[in-house]
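Support case: user asked for a sample of complex input and structure output to validate their parser. Sending the pair below.
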Amino acid sequence: MKDKIAVKVDDLTVAYNYKPVLWDIDLEIPEGVLMAIVGPNGAGKSTLIKSILGILDPIAGSISIYDKPYEKQRALVAYVPQKGSVDWDFPTTALDVVMMGTYGSLGWIKRPGQKQKKAALEALEKVGMLPFKGRQISQLSGGQQQRIFLARALVQNASIYFMDEPFQGVDATTEIAIINILKELRKAGKTVIVVHHDLQTVPEYFDWVTFLNVKKIATGPVKDIFNDDNLTKTYGINYKVSVQE
Amino acid sequence: MSSAQIEIQIIASLVAIACAIPGTFLVLRKMAMISDAISHSILPGIVVGFFITHDLNSPVLILLAALTGIITVVLVEYIQKTGLVKEDTAIGLVFPALFSIGVILIAKNANDVHLDVDAVLLGELAFAPFDRLVIGGTDIGPKSLWIIGCILLVTITLLFAFFKELKVSTFDKGLAASLGFSPVILHYGLMSVSSVTTVGAFDAVGAILVVALMIAPAATAYLLTTDLKKMLGLAIGFGVFSAILGYWVAHWLDASIAGSITTVLGLLFLMVYLFAPSKGIIAVLYREKQQRIEVSLLTFLLHLKNHNEEEERHVNHLNEHINWQKVRSKSVLELAQKNNMISITENIVSLTEKGNEFTSKAIDYIITNEDTQIEDMKDDFFLFRG
């Protein structure tokens, strides 16, 4: 039923200071899935995303987004980095951060105008952050900051969304709000790829999963491969997470 | 005012503006020390440039020296990337090495020319009007005015063209990279502008003051605003203000202009550091004191909510209760009454409806940490502003 491949990774190897953190990864992500990337700390989950997005240079391998290299497909891809990767004391407002999502479609030099502002306001509305549009970003709670990041990705109106631990440090309400938006994106035919930590919620939130620990352990539909066997292979200890019926 | 005085002030102001623009981004990128490194390590570039051109104001010299600045940044990053030392150590290794090469070159070869370490480090603004640019027999002003004017023009053009790109790559490098705005290109662009500005300004104000003019106005502005454009505007304003006031201080004291400008910059930062409305030390201390009182208030209200017995709610008992918290009971009682949260009849304190509701909401917030309910309370109470 899902035949189109949104993201294809071939023989990807990435190293920091000559120490491989990802080793010979082959991965095909079908269009329209909501996929979790799970694995222990240091498994290379963020590295995988960053390599796909051209932020890191792999030492071997190739990546394609709908059969073309990433550089040609930037407009199709949105990225939500880890919340901790930026300085929240930066002098800017919530609205302005969301506007940054529109910069990609503008290209170099051109400045955002009314059209971009309107799109940003709509995205803020979608994540329930419109009342905070003028607030300085350090004055937002952790959950609100994560919603701003999500809005910034939504405003890109992409086909594929990459998110690096969007649930880290957010409360239950925000987590549910975020996952509902992600499910809506999937319903609209988008592909969503999430680095995820909470194994308990994988079956509830996602329909596709990739197990990663430097090497790829397994990838496929949650109902087929999210089992104790793969968890044990990935985390190295005897894992028991019963899949909810 | 003589025309020389006006020229000196114009030069100082242009240098201040040219420094404040890259300086703002250096401060936000936590790279203030890089400007210090560049300002020193351009020395060998200036010396070599001087041997080639025999003119301290030659554009070739400026480009050569700026190149040394870029080499500094590259070397610092290279050493840092080995993972053996941290960035500050790498900076401390690179710039003294380059600087000392410059010192030796001067000592060995430039003894009888007008080029010495003092001139490079401290500059002398007072002499700037004497070195004039004459084209076709017409005097069109001091050379350094033209040099810094051209650099400023380029800087402003680049700022307007790439403001959005600089902003996004400063705030979120990963996003900038994924959107196709190469953080590496922007980084080296900013470093190039910083280097050229430093070299262009050293003759007028000296390499040390360049650092002050890059960092101090931006750091001062950072304390006052939460908007990048305003921060740039304020930094430029502070820079120009210090340049002009510094000139007159030097005039009155008959002292170094560069030194006086730097002193004014320092004092200006100190004033803002103390008195800035929200980030200033005094505002922070006041906020902390208010928060302590508010915590006591909340404890007090919760006590009232939990106890119906009259003896628990008697003013005397509460005095003890609050004094035990080491905050004056009076300020807590006053704060509660000011907000109509309590009523006192015959020395028995009761919660009003408002006080009751406030307490429930506040406790709820503290337990769940969800702040949707307490948005309206943020304006009145520091405690809920995160």
